[in-house]
């Protein structure tokens, strides 16, 4: 099983890489039977269809890397030691979660939950290869363009009460309180996203996960941004079905934003 899929650009390369770490739905055969079957039928914490929202990117010269495994196998956007990214009382799942976002158990029994040996195996087998692939892509672009942007693409349910009681904003741009990207890039992203019809929040309630914080080193010419999107802006209200009409509005804004970021990179 391929751990991830890399979609190479159809147009000349640009200095932007898109990462989609949570749209995967596959389970390795050796552990698939460990999970509750009814939970596997609809993996509720999946960032459904996010990669479809960026299907225009290869025509822009952007490379996309998409994880194929479910985040219930390994969560690529968590700290490798499962150090919490937030300390405000919200439910925080680990890099090898044993519950969904609502605290529901995902394994058939406790003895099937990953122990320390299994956690380490998954890190070495599933987690670090994704990071190494991103590192390779970023280094290739840096050699060609000097500066490079990693855009980490996510979505979340309209409301998850274990994280916050209120519904989530339409879009949330995260850069760990402006530490993971050059101010010009952050401002360009904010201005572009605000030009659309969506409510935009900046670093609240999400500041960017481990991928953004790990790779975002503007002093080293690597700039990372995370965009979290409310699922109902591109899916039906039931958050199960892809809504083509809604999605097209999102895609148009995303394309505009990435084009503007590319222009900004040339002025840094």
From TrEMBL:
Q: Which SUPFAM superfamilies match?
A: Zn-dependent exopeptidases
Q: Which InterPro entries match?
A: N-FG_amidohydro (IPR007709)
Where does this protein come from, organism-wise? Answer: Siansivirga zeaxanthinifaciens CC-SAMT-1
Protein name per UniProt: N-formylglutamate deformylase
Taxonomically, the superkingdom here is: Bacteria
| One Pfam family hit | FGase
């Amino acid at each position: 099983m391929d751990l991830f899929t890399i979609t190479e650009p159809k147009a000349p390369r640009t200095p932007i890489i898109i990462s989609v770490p949570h749209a995967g739905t596959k389970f390795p055969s050796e552990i698939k039977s460990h999970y509750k079957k009814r939970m596997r039928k609809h993996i509720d914490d999946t960032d459904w269809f996010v990669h479809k929202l960026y299907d225009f990117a290869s025509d822009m010269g952007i490379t996309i890397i998409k994880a194929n495994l479910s985040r219930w196998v390994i969560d690529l956007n968590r700290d490798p030691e499962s150090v919490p990214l937030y300390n405000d009382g919200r439910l925080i799942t680990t890099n090898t979660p044993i519950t969904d976002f609502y605290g529901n158990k995902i394994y058939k029994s406790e003895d099937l939950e990953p122990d320390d040996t299994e956690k380490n195996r998954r890190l070495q087998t599933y987690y670090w290869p994704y990071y190494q692939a991103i590192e390779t892509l970023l280094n290739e672009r840096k050699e060609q363009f000097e500066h490079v942007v990693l855009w980490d693409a996510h979505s979340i349910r309209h409301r998850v009460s274990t994280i916050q009681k209120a519904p989530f904003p339409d879009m949330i741009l995260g850069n760990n309180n402006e530490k993971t990207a050059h101010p010009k890039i952050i401002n360009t992203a904010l201005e572009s996203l605000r030009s659309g019809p969506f409510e935009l929040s900046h670093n609240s309630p999400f500041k960017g996960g481990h991928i953004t914080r790990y790779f975002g080193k503007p002093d080293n010419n690597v700039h990372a941004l995370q965009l979290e999107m409310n699922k109902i802006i591109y899916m039906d209200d039931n958050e199960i079905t892809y809504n083509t009409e809604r999605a097209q509005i999102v895609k148009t804004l995303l394309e505009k934003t990435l084009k503007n970021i590319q222009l900004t990179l040339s002025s840094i």
